Amino acid sequence: MPRKKTTRSNGTEDSEVAIAQSLEGLPEGLTTGDLVDSYTNMIMVRTMDERIWALNRQGKVPIAASCQGHEAAQLGSLLAAQKDGRCFLFPYYRDLGLKMAAGLTPTQVMLSFMGKEGEPYSNARQFPLQGADLEHNIIQISNVVGAGLTQAVGYALACKMQDDDTVVLTYFGDGASSQGEAHEAMNFAGVHQLPVIFVCENNHYAISVPQSRQMATDDLASRAQGYGFPGFTVDGMDIVRCYEATREAISHARTQGPVLLEMQVERLMPHTTDDDHLRYRTQEELDSANQRDPVVNFGSDLLARGIITQEKFEAIKAEALQAINEATDVADAANPPDPSTMWGRVYSE
Amino acid sequence: MAVKNVIEAVREALREEMQRDSKVFILGEDVGRRGGVFLATHELIDEFGESRVIDTPLAEASIMGIALGAAFRGMRPIPEVQFSDFIWPAMNQLIGETARACYGTNGALPVPMTIRVPYGGGIRGGLFHSQNVETIFFHTPGLKVVAPATPYDAKGLLKSAIRDNSPVVFLEHKKTYRLVRGELPEEEYTLPIGQADIKRAGENITVVSYGLMLHYCLEAAEAVAGEGIDVEVVDLRTLKPLDKETVLNSVKKTGKLLIVHEDNVTGGVGAEIAALAADEAFEYLDAPVTRLCGPDVPTMPFAQTLEDEYMPNTDKIAQALRKQAAY
Amino acid sequence: MAMILELPHVGESVVEGTIGKWLKQPGDKLTRYEPLVEVITDKVTMEVPSPVDGSLLKILAQEGETVPMGAPIAELETADGSNGSAPTPESVPTTVAPAEPTPAPASTQQSATTGTTGYLVKNINPVGPTGGGVGTEQENRGADQDEPSAPPLQPAPSTSDAPGGSSRPSPAVRRLAKEHGVDLAQVRGTGMGGRITRDDLIRYVEGKQSTPATSTQALPATVEAGPDEQHVPLTPIRRMIADAMVRSVTQIPHAWSTVEVDVTGLVALRTQVRAAFQQSEGVDLTYLPFAIKAVAEALKKYPTLNASWGGDKIILKRRINVGIAVAAPHGLVVPVIHDADRLSITGLATALRDLTQRARQNKLTIEDVQGGTFTLNNTGALGSIVSYPIINHPQAAIVTTEAIQKRAVVRDDAIAIRSMMNICMAFDHRINDGAESGAFLQAVKSRLESIGPDTPIY
Questions:
Q1: DSSP, res A213
Q2: Nearest CB partner across the interface for B284, out of C171, C195, C197
Q3: Is C454's pLDDT higher than 70?
Q4: HSE, side-chain direction, 13 A CA sphere, residue C79
Q5: Which residues of chain C have a CB within 8 Å of the CB of A276?
Q6: C12, C32, C135 ranked by CB distance to A59: nearest
Q7: d(CA B104, CA B101)
Q8: pLDDT of residue C144
Q9: From the list A54, A62, A278, which residue is nearest C33 (CB)?
Q10: Residues 6+ apart with CB under 8 A from B207
C-alpha cells in the first residue's frame, strides 16, 4: 500500500490517507477464513454490547460503555497484533470489542459487567474490564484517559531495554488526545524511537464535546509530525483497512519507531449507559452514522461476495445469542465477591 | 567506618543496587550527563550507560507514567523528581495510577518503583524549592513513604526501597544532603522499611520526628538534659507504614508526647500520631499530646527572617520540651 | 406463572420515570430482552426490556403516567413458569406508587419541615459515574423504619484551661491510682498548678508500700541523752503498734484460756505428705494451714467469736477473714487471709506463703491488711509454749499456736509419748463468756486431734 510520509508544510492536507482496496485483494497475512472468524467475533461482541445495555436497563449492570461503531477498528487492529504474536496492549474504556476478542469468554465478560466473583480484570474491584488481563497481554489501570499513553511508552521503553522486540499498542479516543500526557508520551516515544503504536479511535465526540471543540485541526494524524514519527488516518469502519494499517505499523514500530494511527469511527450509542446523546446530536446525524454500521456492512459484504452463506450468517447470529444468553444466566446466578475480599493486596508482598 | 554525607550515602545505595540488579534504572531531569542537580547520580551514567541513567524531557507526569509502564514490564525504575515542588504535575500517575495498580488488578501487577524526591526547606529555597510534600503520600493507601535523616539510614533504606515490590516515595531532605555526616559501614547492609529508630533513649518525654527536624530534636534534647528533663527521641525513618509499636511503647513509658515536623501542622503526620496516642495509649498519657510544626503558611519564604520565623529549630523545640515536661 | 414487572432503578434518574409508549399490548407474546416499554426519565429516554419469555397480561402504569422507580408497571405471564432474570420482588422496594409524582419512594422521612438541610433519599443506590440509580439487595439503611436519633451527646466538661491547673487527674494518674488503691486526696502534686503527676503517684505508692508512711531505712539513730540513758526515736510503725496495743488493753476486758492439743496424727500426716506436697504444689506444708482451718471451722460453729463489740450491740461478721501475725523487718504486721473458711489446706498454705513473703518484702497492699475478723499468732515458731496474747482491736478474740513438743502424757491409763501443742486464747469478755470461748477452743482442739495420716488435704 503506497504511503506518503507527512511533510513539513501546514499539516492537514498532506496527511496520509489510506487508500481503499477492494476485498478482492486481501492484504498480506489475511485469509477469508480470518474474515469469517472476524465477523463471528464481531457478532459476538455486538450481541454482548446490546445485551449489557439491556441489562443496565433492567438494573443488573450498573455501567456500560458501548463499542458499537468501533468494532472494525478494534477487531482489525487486534487481529494484526494477534497474528504478529509479540504485541502488548494498553486499551481504554471503550475497547469492549478488543478486550473480548482478545480471548475472554462471554461469561467472563458478563461477570465483569455485573461485578461478580471471578471477574477477570480485577475481581470486580474496578469498573468492568478494567485492571489487567495479563494472560492476553492487556493492561488498563484507570479511567484517567491519557494516563495509559505514558504507561505504554514506559512499557515499550522497558521492552527495548530488555532487548525484547515486543511492540506496544496504546488505544485512546479523540478526547484523550488533548491530555497533556498524550503529548508527553508521544514526545518521549519520538525522542527514544520506541516500539509503540498510538491508536486513536476518533469517533469525533468526547462525551458531548465535538471534535471541532477538541482540536483546531481536522485530523489527529498530522500531530505525529511534530514528534518526529509518521501518522496515518485510516477508515476505522473497514476491518480490512484497520488490519492492514496496524500490521504495517507493527512492522515499522519494531524496527524504526513510533506510529500514530488515527482510525476514524462512528460512535453509534451514547457515551455510556448514563448518557443521552440526543441532547447534543441530531437524529439525522445518528441515522447517517448507523448507515455505516461496521458490523452490518461487513456482514452484508461477506454475504454479497459469497464468503459466507445465508445459513452461516443466521447460524453465527443464533450461536452468539445462545452464548450470550448462557453467559447472562451464569453471571446472573454467580455471587458477588465476598466482602472480605475488599481487603488486602494494597501492597505487593 | 567511613564518614559520609547523605548525598554520598544515596549515591552509594543507587550504585550498589544498579550493580546488583540489571533491572534497576534511573530516569529524571539532568540525572545523566550532569549527574543530578545535587550530584546524587554523579558519574553513574559512566558506569551504567545512558540506557540505564536516562535524561528525560522536562515533563514530570511522563517521568512517573513511563516509570510505571516500565515497572509493569518487570523493571525496577527509580524516577527522580528534581525538587518536591515539581511533583504536582505527576500526581495523577502517582496517586491515581501507581498507588492503585496493585489493588486495582487484584494483586496481578506489583509496582517495584522508588520515587526519589529531594524536599524540605531551610536553604533559602523560597516557596518553590522548599516544599514538604510527604503528607499527601502518607495519606494514600498503596504507597510507602520513607524519610531518613542520616546517611546510615538513607543508604540502608534506599536499598530496601529499591528492592521493595511496592512503590516507595523516598524523601531526601535537601538540607541534610551535605550538612549531615555520619558513619557508613563498609559491608553490605539494608534497613527495614517500617521500623522507627530510637536515636536517644529517655524517661520523661517522647519526641517523635523525622528528616531534618530529627537533628534539631536531638540538639534540643541535649540542651534540656542539664535541666533534669530526659528526652527520648524517636526517629520515624519510615512514615508509612508507621511503626506504631515503637511510638506507642515510648509514649507509654514516658507518658508525654511532643511531635515535631517541618510540614504544615494541620493534617500533617503529627496529627495522625496524636490520634494514635489518644486512641491506643490513652491510659498512659500524663499530659496533652502536643505538636511543634511548620505553620499553616504555604511554604517557608525566601528572606532569611521570614524563613527563620517559619522553621522549627533547636530553641523552639527546647522551649516546647520544657513546657511539656513541666505539665 | 404471573409476575409483576417493576420499573427498574436505572439510568440517570434517581427517583422516577414516565411511561412513554407501550411497545406491546396485553395478550402479545414476549421474548426475553425484547423492548417492552419506553420510559422517559429526566435524563434519558430508555427502552425497558422484557425480563422473560412469555406474554403481557396487564398494563398497570398507563402511557403518560409518572411512577417512582420500583413501582409495578405491568403484569406478565412467564412461558415456562420461571422467573427468568427478572428482579426478584425483594430486590427493589415494593411500595405502590402514588399517582402524583412524589419523590423519595419508601422514604418515611419526608415531612412538612424538611428545612434547608433537606434529607437523604432512601432505597436508592446511585451507581455509575454520574450517579444513576440501581436498586440492589443491600439492606435499606433504615428506610423502612425511622431510627430514633440518638440524643445529642453532651459535650464532655472541658478540663481547666489553666495550664496544668486542672483538678482532673490525667489518664495515667487515674489508672495508677486505681491499680494501687490510692486515694488521690492523699497525694501531693508537684505538677503545673499543683496537679498530681504520674511520677508523684508512683512516688506515693512506693513510699506507702515500704512501710506505712515511712521510708525503708534502718533503725533511727539513738540519741545520747545524758551519761545514763540513750533515747531511741520512735519509728512510725513502732508508734502505731504502741497505740494499737494500748487501745486493745484499755478498751477490751481480756480473759485467757489454754488447751493442750495432741497433734501426733497431724505430725504424722505432715511428715508423710510434705515432700510430695512440695513437689506438686511448690509450697512447704507447715502446721499453720491446719490450725487456720480448724479455727475457721470452729468460728463457723461459734460465730460470736468472729465479732466486734458495738457499744450497744454485738456485731457478728459474716466473712471469716483470719489475720496471721507476721514478723516483718520493721515490725509486726497482720496480713489477712480473706474467707479462710472457703480455702482448702492447699489454698491456705499457698495464701500463707504469698502473704508472708510479701510481708517480709514490704509489698503488702492495703487490701492485704484490711478486713480481718480474727487473728492467729504462731508464737510457737519462737519457742513459746504458753502465751497471754493481746486481742487485735476490735476483734472478739485472738488465738496462738504454741510450739509442738514431744511429751510424756497419760493415755488410756498408760504413759505415752505424744506430740503436744498448746493453743492459747484471749477473748473479749464483754462479747463471750467462758462457756462459748471454751467450747470454741474445744472445737479447735478436736478438729486438730482428728487429723491423721489418712486425712485428705485437698
A1: H
A2: C171
A3: yes
A4: 12
A5: 12, 43-45
A6: C135
A7: 5
A8: 40
A9: A54
A10: B217, B220, B221, B231, B232, B233, B234, B257, B258, B259, B260, B317, B321
Between 3.40.50.970, 2.40.50.100, 3.40.1190.10, 3.40.50.2300, what CATH number should domain A7-16+32-333 receive?
3.40.50.970
* Cβ count within 10 A of residue B289: 22
Geometric angle at alpha carbon A175, from C46 and C125, rounded to 5° = 40
Rg (CA), chain A: 20
Mutate to test the interface with A, among C38, C91, C127 (most CBs of A within 10 A): C127
- Nearest to C362, CA basis, from C241, C222, C217: C217
What SS3 class is residue C300?
helix
Interacting residues of A117 by C-beta distance below 8 A, sequence separation 6+: A111, A123, A124, A334, A335, A336, A337, A338, A341
Determine which of C160, C198, C199 to mutate to test the interface with B (most B C-beta atoms within 10 Å).
Answer: C198
The structural domains of chain C, ordered by start, are 1-147 (2.40.50.100), 162-214+236-251 (4.10.320.10), 254-449 (3.30.559.10)
How far does Cα A288 stand from its chain's mean position? 22
What residues contact residue B218 under an 8 Å CB cut-off, 6+ apart? B199, B200, B233
What digits encode the pLDDT tens for the residues B251-295?
999 999 999 999 999 999 999 999 999 999 999 999 999 999 999
C-chain CB neighbours of B285 within 8 Å are 170-172
Taking each helix axis as running N to C, give the angle between helix A310-333 and helix A106-114, from 0 to 180 degrees, rounded to the nearest 10: 40
Q: Which domains does chain B have, with CATH numbers?
A: 2-184 (3.40.50.970), 197-326 (3.40.50.920)
The catalytic position among A192, A254, A280, A281 is: A280
- Give the torsion through C-alpha atoms of A301, A304, A307, A311, to 10 deg: 110
Active-site residue, from A267, A277, A281, A345:
A267
- Chain B positions in Cβ-Cβ contact with residue A190 (cut-off 8 Å): none
pTM above 0.90, yes or no: no
| Structure confidence at residue C12 as a pLDDT band (50, 70, 90) | very low
Helical pair C198-210 and C171-180, crossing angle rounded to 10 deg: 10
Tell me the three state secondary structure of residue B18: helix
Of A51, A54, A274, the CB nearest to C129: A274
At residue B203, what is the residue type? E
Distance CA B183, CA C301 (A): 80
Known catalytic membership, residue C429: yes
Q: Which residues 228-267 of B have a C-beta within 8 angstroms of C? A: 255
Beta strands in chain A (DSSP E): 16-17, 87-90, 131-133, 138-140, 167-173, 196-202, 205-206, 209-210, 231-235, 259-264
Task: Give how far Cα B259 sits from Cα of B130, B220, C171, Å.
Answer: 21, 13, 20
Q: CB C12 to CB A272 under 8 A?
A: no
Nearest chain A residue to C50 by CA distance is A58
Query: How many Å apart are CA C40 and CA A258, to the nearest integer?
Result: 47
Contact (Cβ atoms closer than 8 angstroms) between residue A166 and residue A158: no
**What does the pLDDT look like over C277-306, one tens digit per residue?**
988 888 889 999 999 999 999 999 999 999
Among candidate residues B311, B243, B309, B303, the one with its CA nearest the CA of residue B273: B243
DSSP B21: -
Interface contact B280, partner C, CB < 8 A = no
Phi/psi-derived region of residue B255, left when phi > 0, alpha when psi is between -120 and 50, beta in every other case = left
Q: Could you confirm whether A93 is annotated as catalytic?
A: no
Q: How far apart are CA C347 and CA C350, in angstroms?
A: 5
Burial (CB < 10 A; 0-12, 13-18, 19+), residue C153, is exposed
Q: How far apart are CA C147 and CA C133, in angstroms?
A: 24
DSSP-derived secondary structure for A7-41: -SSSSSTTSEEPPP--TTSPPTT--HHHHHHHHHH
